[in-house]
Design a protein that fits this description.
The complex is a heterodimer of chains A (392) and B (533). In chain A, α2 packs parallel to α15 and α3 runs antiparallel to α13. Chain A is 76% helix and 1% strand. Chain A is globular and about 70 Å long. Chain A has a single domain, classed as ABC transporter involved in vitamin B12 uptake, BtuC (Orthogonal Bundle), CATH 1.10.3470. By secondary structure, chain A is mainly alpha-helical. Chain A has 16 helices and two strands. Chain B is α/β, with parallel strands linked by helices and 533 residues long. Chain B starts with a helix and ends in a 9-residue tail after the last strand. The C terminus of chain B is likely disordered. The chains are: A mainly alpha (392), B alpha/beta (533). The interface between A and B is medium-sized, with 32 and 31 residues.
Chain lengths: 392, 533
């Protein structure tokens, strides 16, 4: 019975669990080939910090692809807004708490500008955002032309990309980050409570729910996963601010996309735009919202990147958009629209960055790295198409 | 002004052009809350266009819509839905990757109030199930994916979507057609109920019976123009059809009105036929399986019979062979023992005769010796009857020839004999059987035919290995030959022939000749076709 349930669960959700499996396989391979360096606290912590700015973009890109569009401008938009943030901090002397909302707002506006030709004029988003790609690249070169690389000296700003959450010294578990462990524990407890609650609610309304043993298995699996990650992170410097930001973004977007009317409408548009329009869903409005959020996340990504480098460079943001798109596809977003989860894209981004990080540790030539990453992307999309044909 | 207060929707000179096509021109009417308006017209009359303008799918090219006392212009469906105008369009579009419940509530979610509109899926599921029950669908259907629905099921989803939340104006564009008859009735009841709750309904249908059943007024469109707006109780289907067709010529109206009037009936019939078809299919399937079983049993029985038959034939063949073997043994016994003994007694008597002095005694012994010779002769005759001695040594032709010459001698009937010189030897049982058949045939002629001439012909044919034909010019049978009858009357001649033939897998063909007399032909396949000298 247990095995049968497990089989059914895996078969029904192979698309969802596929990338978790892929992530484990990749991590296991790198752990073996690098003699455990890959799985070390320090490397995992670095890996997650590197993933941050791509993960944020991938989350936004997920929704863009879900509504059957694409946004190529996000890379250089991120670079450009990172440079603007640096200028605002260094030359205009604005404080961090003004700069961050300002840049986010600018990003949102930039997204709306990209959305305008797409939503109002029906121009393909590929073309519209390609124009944005060129424009923002030009603007980035323009604002950094006079100074070249701008060094950022604001500690608060730089902490976003490099800092870790503070710890308290309780006198036990030396060498481990206590607050991180505590947060991990709280996360696990909250996850379990909310899972049980929602299961109870679903049962009250006679929804189909997972069999009891599978439910327990899923809880245990997720708890162990979260526990392991916090344990590993606590072994180094604990949670970084980047990870906190990413988790916040993913959490908010996950909630919006799965629990709200807005999320339903976004997926409806992706599934059947015509039917959505006839159902009173305003496709235009949602196109603006999705592209706007993409622009805002680009701004966030740009600031994360600038903060991590503690400077704004003329090349910032190069190829971010393609990394984000690849991460989204690896994370299970369907090119046909209407299918794909924000959490999936986060895992996709981690898979993608793990490949880079692992191969760097193995001293694989950059040429081969591109080939491998391309192969993984192709495999992910083929997997997506193949599983869709056979099932759901 | 008091009339205006009771007015929910007013449409003034509403028009819409698609390019140069004027799809709708100058439609004007107003509706009170709870009023039901039927829109009728032929295809292309502008019905759907009117529904699209009212529901916000297209913006009007001219004219005005006033809803609830305020002029409104709809550019999107959501604007209309916000005011409580819900439409079910022809050919509803669904979201194939979502389940029925999500489709029903798409764009009309039940959500929490506040900053974030989170979904209340439990409530939505309950409402969906209630609606499904109302439309006589199973409730677990709510969580089915809509990817593989039939037209009717898709229409039900679309209707459920329109009915899942309260509305003020319900637009049903040909929403009844895809439904089964029973569900159409359910929907009509529902429309009446909504009308009582002050919901205004506009519906179009090709079924005038339905239109007359629920509407208060009827709007007739003809080629995009509004030709009339009638109170339902003041008009008749015939008037409506005249206006719809745009003519009162009998020839044009009759087929149309006939079509509209019989539509209802036709649909009921269709429904009935469909059910009957299903039942028929099921009963046919059952019958099929019974037939199948019967055929199987029959086959088994036939097979068993076949086996029995084979066994019987085999037994018959063995009986015949054993009889022949017995006869052979008997003949040998007679020949080798009794005849030899008799002959040796004869010699002894001859020797005794030479020793006997008395003439009288000698004569007596001579007499005895003659008698013994006669006994030996008749014994030899019996022997050759039992077992034609020639058949073993000289083959069938010689045996038959000797048989015939004896028979002619005995009966004086002339036999015309024609034996294929290439006849060659055949397996012993066959040769014997043929010999017996000829013997039986001759006996038959002798007994019954009073014939003066008999022809007998034996030949090899390419088809069968042996062909035997015997014919006489006697009086022939009185009735057509019936073997079963003959057997009952203990006339075993022909019956015996036919039995022997069938034991050799041969065929017997009896014919009564026109000039009297009986003829029969037999074909015997050879078990060893290669035997040819």
């Amino acid at each position: 019975m247990f095995l049968k349930n497990l089989q059914k669960l895996l078969r029904d959700n192979i698309r969802e669990y596929g990338m978790f499996i892929a992530l484990f396989v990749i991590m296991a391979i790198f752990t073996i080939t690098t003699d455990g360096i890959f799985i070390s606290s320090r490397n995992i912590s670095n890996l997650l910090n590197q993933t941050g700015y791509i993960a944020v973009l991938a989350v936004g890109m997920t929704l863009v692809i879900v509504i059957r569009h694409i946004d190529l401008s996000v890379g250089f938009l991120a670079g450009f807004l990172g440079a603007v943030a640096a200028i605002a901090l260094q030359f205009w002397g604005l404080p961090v708490y003004v700069v961050i909302p300002l840049i986010l707002a600018l990003g949102f506006i930039a997204g709306l500008i990209t959305a305008y030709p797409v939503a109002q004029l029906g121009i393909p988003s590929f073309v519209a955002s390609l124009a944005g790609w060129l424009i923002y690249r030009g603007l980035l070169l323009l604002v950094t032309a006079a100074t070249g690389t701008i060094i950022i000296q604001d500690d608060a700003f730089n902490a976003i990309g490099n800092g870790y959450i503070p710890d308290v010294n309780l006198g036990f578990l030396p060498g481990l980050h206590k607050i991180t462990l505590l947060l991990g524990l709280i996360a696990i407890v909250l996850f379990i409570i909310s899972s049980i609650n929602s299961r109870r609610k679903q049962q009250a309304y006679d929804f189909e729910v997972l069999p009891y043993d599978m439910f327990i298995l899923k809880l245990a699996f997720m708890s162990i996963l979260v526990g392991l990650i916090t344990w590993v992170l606590a072994g180094y410097n604990g949670l970084s601010w980047t990870v906190v930001v990413v988790l916040l973004v993913v959490g908010i977007y996950h909630f919006i996309s799965t629990q709200t009317v807005l999320g339903r409408h976004i997926y409806a548009i992706g599934g059947n735009p015509e039917a959505a329009e006839l159902s009173g869903v305003s496709v235009k409005r949602l196109t603006f919202i999705v592209f706007g959020s993409m622009g805002m996340l680009s701004a966030l990504s740009g600031m994360l990147f600038a903060s991590r480098l503690q400077s704004a460079t003329t090349q910032a943001g190069t190829l971010f958009e393609l990394d984000a798109i690849a991460a989204a596809y690896i994370g299970g977003v369907s090119a046909a629209g209407g299918v794909g989860q924000v959490t999936g894209s986060l895992v996709g981004a981690i898979v993608y960055m793990s490949l880079t990080s692992g191969m760097n540790l193995m001293n694989v030539d950059i040429a081969y790295q591109y080939v491998v990453r391309g192969a993984v992307l192709a495999a992910a999309v083929i997997f997506d198409v193949a599983t869709r044909r056979t099932g759901k | 002004m008091s009339a205006d207060a009771r007015e929910l929707l007013r449409v003034d000179h509403l028009s819409r052009d698609f390019g140069t096509v004027r799809a709708l021109r100058d439609v004007t009417f107003s509706l009170a809350p709870g009023e039901v308006l039927g829109v009728v017209g032929q295809r292309g009359a502008g019905k759907s266009t009117l529904f699209q303008l009212l529901s916000g799918v297209h913006a009007p090219s001219g004219g005005e819509i006033t809803f609830d006392g305020r002029p409104v212009t709809f550019h999107t469906v959501s604007q209309a839905e916000k005011l409580g105008i819900v439409a079910v369009h022809q050919n509803p579009q669904l979201f194939e990757h979502m389940n029925v419940m999500h489709n029903v509530f798409m764009g009309r979610e039940i959500h929490g109030k506040g900053l974030v509109n989170f979904n209340r899926e439990g409530r939505m599921l309950q409402v969906t199930r209630d609606l499904l029950t109302a439309f006589d669908m199973p409730i677990d259907w709510a969580e089915e994916s809509v990817g593989s629905l039939s037209d009717e099921e898709m229409q039900i989803v679309a209707l459920a979507r329109a009915l899942c939340r309260p509305c003020r104006l319900l637009l049903l564009d040909d929403a009844l057609e895809a439904l089964s008859f029973a569900r159409q009735e359910l929907l009509l009841e529902r429309i009446k109920a909504l009308s009582e709750q002050q919901v205004t309904v506009i519906l179009s249908s090709d079924d005038l019976k339905q239109v007359f059943a629920v509407t208060d007024r009827i709007l007739i469109l003809y080629q995009g123009r509004q030709v009339a707006l009638r109170r339902t109780e003041d008009t008749t289907p015939r008037d409506i059809v005249e206006l719809m067709v745009g003519s009162n010529r009998q020839g044009r109206i009759t087929p149309v009105i006939w079509a509209y009037e019989s539509y209802h009936e036709a649909q009921k019939q269709t429904e009935y036929l469909r059910k009957a078809q299903r039942e028929l299919k099921r009963s046919l399937e059952e019958k099929d399986s019974i037939n199948q079983r019967l055929i199987e049993r029959l086959e088994n029985q036939v097979e068993a019979l076949d086996q029995l038959n084979m066994a019987l034939q085999e037994a018959g063949r063995r009986v015949l062979m054993e009889r022949e073997a017995e006869r052979k043994a008997l003949a040998r016994e007679l020949h080798d023992q009794i005849i030899q003994d008799l002959l040796s007694y004869n010699y002894q008597l001859e020797e005794a005769e030479s020793r006997v002095q008395g003439e009288e005694q000698r004569q007596e012994i001579v007499q005895i010796r003659n008698n013994i010779r006669q006994v030996v002769a008749s014994l030899r005759h019996v022997c050759s009857d039992l077992r034609p001695p020639t058949i073993d040594n000289h083959g069938l032709p010689a045996a038959i020839r000797s048989l015939i010459s004896k028979w002619t001698e005995q009966t004086g009937v002339l036999v015309e004999l024609d034996i294929d010189p290439d006849l060659g030897r055949l397996p012993e049982p066959i040769e014997l059987s043929v010999f017996r058949i000829v013997q039986e045939g001759l006996r038959n002629v002798q007994k019954h035919a009073e014939a003066s001439r008999v022809t007998l012909c034996l030949e090899r044919t390419p088809k069968a290995s042996l062909h035997v034909r015997m014919a006489d010019d006697g009086k022939g049978p009185e009735h057509p030959v019936d073997l079963a009858e003959l057997a009952e009357q203990n006339h075993f001649g022909l019956v015996g022939i036919s039995e022997r033939v069938s034991l050799m897998d041969g065929t017997l063909d009896l014919t009564c000749r026109r000039d009297g007399g009986l003829a029969w032909e037999i074909d015997i396949p050879s078990p060893y076709p290669s035997i040819h000298n």
